[in-house]
């Protein structure tokens, strides 16, 4: 019997969702959707299983002032007659992306009251994301308390890191409290690891760095499809610069903000999560497309800094892996930013990476100019598919 699985990926300013029909060994996409621009100019985009656009609605700027309000819009549509006709049956289970699983969760789990309490208790480790992930979980518990819900954690894929990679150089007591390097974007990296095994099994078994570049950005070093290290650490602030987050920063800067600027923890948190990164450095926008179109020198500086820091971390992860067999680009910027891909590959050419401009412009899978040596690849991610797969496996559907 066909089961309908719903995957929900709630971010800081968007909600992505997909419905899949689980039949036999396959997951067939029935509908996909995105509510973006939450808090500014919301837009609801819905496509059918083959990618044809069904809805592309610009909503009132007051329609979705928060993720909670946006979730209500998505939830109402998913329960509409239009959605029911597209999905082709009642929803059997829902899988959710949850950014932080802490030290507790190394696999996807079914959500009950105890699990929900533990996820909620981790909010202080991901204050920008965890409340947004919780919003649809709580809403669907009210709508359909009988419906099984599964939490899939962005940290889970990285839980096999060595202790050397996982530790900070701080006292043992803090490590035992859970202050350690977790890594994020794990659902995306897990999908890329599986997809690489289909596309290029020899490369998948080798030394691979995946660049997940979106509004949130990180790099992951993989060997034989397993995460060895990641640029993100205790929180999603670490690593390379992002849309509004600075990436790795000298802790002394935080002390400076406290002493010289009189900022408390809440003000510093808001500053680091919302006012830094490409937005802070450019003073213009966190959107790469806006910065690339701008003639402002600060926009160019922000992009130059972005490329520099990514190339620097690629070098560090290549050292961890003992070499490099492939660099894989994924996520919004990684999949669509041809110019930035070219600049990052050029900055990393000392590792043997090359780029074919025509293949890069055409968004082909293999972007490499040379036929031998390390490969530059572009592989679109699909976190919702991975969430649906975990949901199906856990519930035995």
- What's the SSE pattern? EEEEEHHEEHHEHHHHEEEHHHHHEHHHEH
Q: Mind describing the biggest β-sheet?
A: 8 strands, mixed
In order across it, which strands form the biggest sheet?
Answer: 5-4-3-2-1-6-8-7
Mean pLDDT score, rounded? 94
CATH superfamily of the largest domain: ATPase, nucleotide binding domain
Distinct helical segment count: 17
Number of domains: 2
SS strand fraction: 15-25%
Shape: globular
CATH topology of the largest domain: Nucleotidyltransferase, domain 5
| Helical residue percent band | 40-55%
Reported CATH architecture of the largest domain: 2-Layer Sandwich
Number of DSSP strands? 13
Structural class: alpha/beta
What is the gyration radius calculated from CA atoms? 21 Å
Give unreliable regions as ranges: none
CATH domain class of the largest domain: Alpha Beta
**C-alpha end-to-end distance:** 9 Å
Summarize the helices and strands and which ones pair or pack:
Layout: E1 3-10, E2 15-23, E3 26-36, E4 43-48, E5 53-58, H1 67-78, H2 81-87, E6 91-98, E7 109-110, H3 113-121, H4 130-143, E8 149-153, H5 163-166, H6 172-176, H7 186-199, H8 201-204, E9 207-213, E10 217-223, E11 226-230, H9 251-261, H10 265-274, H11 277-282, H12 288-293, H13 297-321, E12 326-330, H14 331-336, H15 338-347, H16 357-361, E13 375-378, H17 383-395
Parallel strand pairs: 1-6, 6-8, 9-12, 12-13
Antiparallel strand pairs: 1-2, 2-3, 3-4, 4-5, 7-8, 9-10, 10-11
């Amino acid at each position: 019997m066909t089961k309908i699985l719903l995957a929900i990926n709630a971010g800081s300013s968007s909600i992505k969702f997909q419905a899949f029909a689980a039949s036999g060994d396959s997951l067939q996409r029935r509908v996909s959707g995105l509510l973006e621009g939450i808090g500014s100019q919301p837009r609801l985009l819905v496509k059918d299983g083959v990618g044809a656009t069904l809805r592309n609605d610009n909503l009132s700027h007051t329609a979705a002032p928060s993720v909670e309000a946006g979730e209500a819009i998505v939830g109402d549509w998913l329960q509409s007659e239009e959605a029911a006709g597209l999905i082709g049956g009642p929803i059997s289970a829902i899988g959710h992306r949850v950014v932080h699983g802490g030290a507790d969760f190394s696999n996807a789990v079914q959500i009950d009251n105890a699990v929900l309490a533990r996820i909620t208790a981790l909010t202080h480790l991901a204050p920008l994301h965890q409340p947004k992930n919780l919003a649809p979980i709580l809403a669907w518990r009210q709508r359909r308390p009988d419906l099984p819900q599964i939490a899939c954690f962005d940290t889970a894929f990285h839980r096999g890191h060595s202790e050397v990679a996982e530790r900070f150089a701080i006292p043992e007591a803090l490590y035992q409290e859970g202050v350690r390097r977790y890594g994020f974007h794990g659902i995306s990296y897990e999908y890329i690891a599986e997809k690489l095994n289909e596309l290029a099994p020899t490369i998948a078994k080798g030394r691979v760095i995946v660049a997940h570049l979106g509004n949130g950005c990180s790099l992951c070093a993989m060997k034989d499809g397993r995460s060895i290290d990641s640029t993100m650490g205790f929180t999603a602030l670490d690593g390379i610069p992002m849309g509004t987050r600075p990436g790795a920063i000298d802790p002394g800067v935080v002390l400076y903000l406290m002493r010289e600027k009189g900022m408390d923890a809440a003000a510093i948190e808001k500053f680091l999560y919302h006012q830094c990164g490409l937005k802070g450095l450019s003073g213009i926008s966190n959107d790469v497309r806006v910065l690339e179109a701008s003639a402002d020198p600060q926009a160019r500086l922000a992009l130059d800094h972005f490329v520099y820091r990514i190339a620097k971390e690629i070098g560090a992860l290549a050292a961890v892996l003992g070499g490099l067999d492939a660099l894989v680009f994924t996520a919004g910027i990684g999949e669509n930013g041809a110019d930035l891909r070219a600049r990052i590959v050029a900055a990393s050419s000392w590792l043997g990476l090359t780029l074919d401009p025509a293949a890069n412009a055409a968004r082909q899978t293999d972007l490499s100019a040379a036929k031998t040596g390390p490969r530059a690849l572009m592989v679109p991610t699909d976190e919702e598919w991975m969430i649906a797969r975990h949901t199906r496996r856990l519930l035995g559907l």
